[in-house]
Amino acid sequence: MTPIRANARILTASLVGTAVEFYDFYVYATAAALVFGPLFFPSESASAQLLFSLMSFGLAFFARPVGAIAFGHFGDRVGRKSTLVASLMLMGLSTLLIAFLPTYAMAGWIAPALLCLLRFGQGFGLGGEWGGAALLAVENAPKGWEARFGAAPQLGAPLGFLAANGLFLLLGMNLSEADFAAWGWRIPFLLSAVLVILGLWVRLRIGETPAFRAAVEKAPPPLVPLGRLLSHHALAVLAGSAGVVACFAVFYLSTAFALSYLTGTRGFARETVLALQLAANCFLAMGIVCAAIWADRTSAKRVLAAGSLATIALGLVFGPVMDVAPLPVVFATSAFALTIMGLVYGPLGAWLPTLFPVTVRYTGVSVAFNAGGIVGGALAPIAANLLSGAGGTALVGLFLSAAGVMTLLGVILARPVPAEPVPAIM
Which end of the chain is more exposed for a tag (fewer CB within 10 A), N or C? Predict the structure, then answer.
């Protein structure tokens, strides 16, 4: 196989697999914001149902570090390829089964219990996904192209978001509210099976990374990668976790929270807000590409620092815009927010692997990425819902600024490990 074909296959495997994962993940986020509250939780009040729905959404972020440890263990001991295949299968199966769940009216408390169990499975699978996909790309990257190769998994996020939101938009335009709530919401979960099959077909056709092969030939992998990681690289884990908080907070506040707030509190039509977010999603892809090119020309650290400062500034205007601004201003702010997310998300694939040696890199990258997701992804929508009820959306914006401060501190404190030479791709 020629180097061009090998690189194309590697980048496709990183991109397609992560797009499938984020499609699955955002399908749940959209359904949680729109219909899961009244379908799966007791009807105490609409706000309580939405809060419980968002809490079930956040459950996956607590499952992700557990999945990161489990998949990271095998990724550092067995290899990147087989671990990535397993994570995709678990994520896809959990998503598919949600389509067949009974509602609270059908099965009582069993319905939310099963929903939370499958949501945990989604998070557990995704815990091993991003780190492996990033390493698959970066550990195969030509010299000087690490950030551009490492951005391939990140580009899966806007593609998955586009597919998920686009499908919900089409369903909303062609189904009545009653039909959508009765059965229409199940269709995106059913269609995930097609995407998973595509992702598996691509990933089964790739080989192991040169960096992992070289490390295994040099010395046996550690028996317990997590133990070595925490005993030798604890500061890197903390810094890396802080460094990813902003990207999660920007994404879920400007999409899931904004969708819920704009349709629920401000009363805009669901299809209008979904179309607005679909258009703004293009700016996320643009931001990721620009950030990757910028990072290869300067450094991933510099781009992340710039993105974190922009996140702090975004938080100062985000709340008032969501609360009172007309839709054109909301769109402009959403587009700006997702462009900023590109700056704090695009370079992560190149930045996080530099903090850990190859022997514990899968575990380190996965644990750091998903631990940061607890603060930026799980807590952000829940905190935003509570803060908006207690003191308005201005407090939500301050939460976003705080996330930017955390990422900036992580970038400042992080120290890269010495680069390890690997054989070239033949």
Answer: C
**Hey, what are 188's tokens?**
């995106």
Cβ-Cβ contacts under 8 Å for 288 (sequence gap 6 or more): 151, 154, 155, 157, 158, 342, 345, 346
pLDDT score, position 424:
45
Q: What percent of the chain has pLDDT over 90?
A: 39
**DSSP of 164-208:** HHHHHHHHHHHS-HHHIIIIITHHHHHHHHHHHHHHHHHHTT---
Alpha-carbon 346 to chain mean position? 12
Which parts of the chain have pLDDT scores under 50?
1-2, 422-426
Q: What is the pLDDT of residues 86-125, one digit of tens each?
A: 888 898 899 899 999 998 889 888 998 999 999 999 889 8
> Class of the 3-205+223-413 domain?
mainly alpha
Q: b/e for 360-390, b at 16 or more Cβ within 10 A?
A: bbbbbbbbbbbbbbbbbbbbbbebbbebbee
Sequence-distant (≥ 6) Cβ neighbours of residue 220 within 8 angstroms: none
| Residue 267 φ then ψ, to 5° | 80, 20
Q: How far is CA 141 from CA 9, 150, 291, 389, 411, in A?
A: 12, 8, 17, 47, 23
C-alpha span between 294 and 130 (Å, rounded): 22
C-alpha dist (Å) from residue 92 to 135, 260, 267, 344, 403: 21, 25, 33, 27, 30
Provide the whole-model pTM: 0.83
Q: What is the pLDDT of the chain when averaged over all its residues?
A: 87
What ranges do the domains of the chain cover? Answer: 3-205+223-413
